[in-house]
Amino acid sequence: MTERLAELLQAAFPGDELAVEDRTGSGDHFQVTVASARFEGLSLVEQHRLVYDALAAPLADGTIHELRIKTMGAQ
Amino acid sequence: MTGLNQQIKQIIETEDVALFMKGTPQFVMCGNSHRALEALRRAGAPVTAVDVLPDPQIREELSALSGWPTIPQVFVRGELVGGADIVEELEASGELEQTLKTKLGDEYRGGEERVVAVP
Hints:
The structure holds two protein chains of two kinds. Chain A is of the alpha+beta class.
């Protein structure tokens, strides 16, 4: 499941720095970190919305029970 | 629009600080709801909590209104501030306190924590 989330994020944020961590080892509680130039000038709400959009499918079908998001500008 | 939709909208628009959460401040049912509540408490926010668990429809209507897919959701005077991660981040940087001051006035602290039942 970690790989699936990473693939979805890579598709949405090509070339950006990404990390996906399975926080509990159970494949449904994740921490995702995204560093992207796309976030510059956006509010945190707007930044997180972009991440939610990328992960809309696993959020909607219930495979993600808990998602923690950390966003930052390009490093 | 359904009655439930109207009721949620009214809470978002009229409450100073609305926290849609799993459980209540007295009996929190989810780690992220707990994180958001604690960050709001540290900032001294006058929280009005709404438990989304009694009816799945509450969560559906809320997410349709806000465009935010997860719980918790925090609103200050009608504006979505974010979920647990954002509220924690803003609290740690002092921006949450600043937003509360700007929107509610310098004397915003000391308001009582309330629970509003929906529907």
